Amino acid sequence: MKDFGRQVPPLLIVLSGPSGVGKDAVLSGMRKSGCPLFFAVTATTRPRRERERDGVDYIFVSREEFEQMIARHELLEWANVYGNLYGVPKGGLKAALARDQDAIVKVDVQGAATINRDHPEAVFIFLAPPSDQELEERLRQRKTESGVDLELRLLAAKEEMKSLPLFDYVVVNARDRLESAISQIESIITAEKCRVVPRTVEL
User: Fold this and answer.
1) Count of domains forming the chain
2) CB–CB of 127/26 below 8 Å?
3) pLDDT (tens digit per residue) in 173-200
C-alpha cells in the first residue's frame, strides 16, 4: 500500500481473546463489510460442529495430518486446547503479505503469545467481554460445552485476562454492539497505517 508516496508494509493482525467472546462473529462481520483483509483459516483436529464449513470456518484435519504439518514447519503457531490441536497455516499468510495485503489471524491467548515471541512486529488485539457474567451467558447459549468444559473455559478466561500486557489494543465486544467492535478494529488498522515508523513482518 502506498501512502503519500511512501510504501507502507502490509500488516499481520492477531485477534485473540477468551472462548465465547465473539471472535468468529467479529471476523464474519468484517468479511461482510468488505474489509480488504486476508482472513487466515485455522486448522484443527476437533470435530466439525453443525453449520461449520470446512475450509471456511476451520480446516478440519486428522491428528496425523496435523502432526505432519507441524513436522514440515507449515504452521505459524499451534497449540493443544482442551485436547484438540489448533494451528494457523503459513502458506496463505505468506502469499497475502507478498502481494501487500494485510492479513488477520484468530488465535487463543496461548497462540498469540507464541506469535508475539516470534513476530513481535505484528499488531495484537485482545477482544474482551464487557463482564464475566456476559461471557458465561454466551458460553451457556452456545450449548457446545458440557458443564465441566464450561467451568474450564470460564477459569481459563479469567487467566487469559491477565495476559493483556502482551497486546497492543483491547476492544470490548458487548452484546448487540458488534458493529462498534468491528469499527474499533478497523480504526486500529487505519491508525497503524499512519505510523511514522511502520511495522514490518517477515514470516
Assistant:
1) 1
2) yes
3) 988 899 999 999 999 999 999 999 999 9
Q: What is the pTM of this model?
A: 0.86
pLDDT digits (tens, 9 = 90+) for 81-106: 778 999 999 999 999 999 999 999 99
Residue 95 lies in a domain: yes
The mean pLDDT of 105-133, rounded to a whole number, is 92
Name which of 139, 157, 132, 173 is nearest 23 in CA terms. Answer: 173
**Residue 169's pLDDT is what?**
97
Kind of pairing between the strands at 169-172 and 123-128: parallel
Query: Contact 32/96 with Cβ under 8 angstroms?
Result: no
Would 57 be classed as within a structural domain?
A: yes
Pick the closest to residue 112 from 123, 99, 128, 98 (CA basis): 123
Q: What is the 3-state secondary structure (H, E, C) of 41-67?
A: CCEECCCCCCCCCECCCEEECCHHHHH
149 part of a folded domain: yes
Question: What is the extent of the structural domain holding 131?
Answer: 2-193
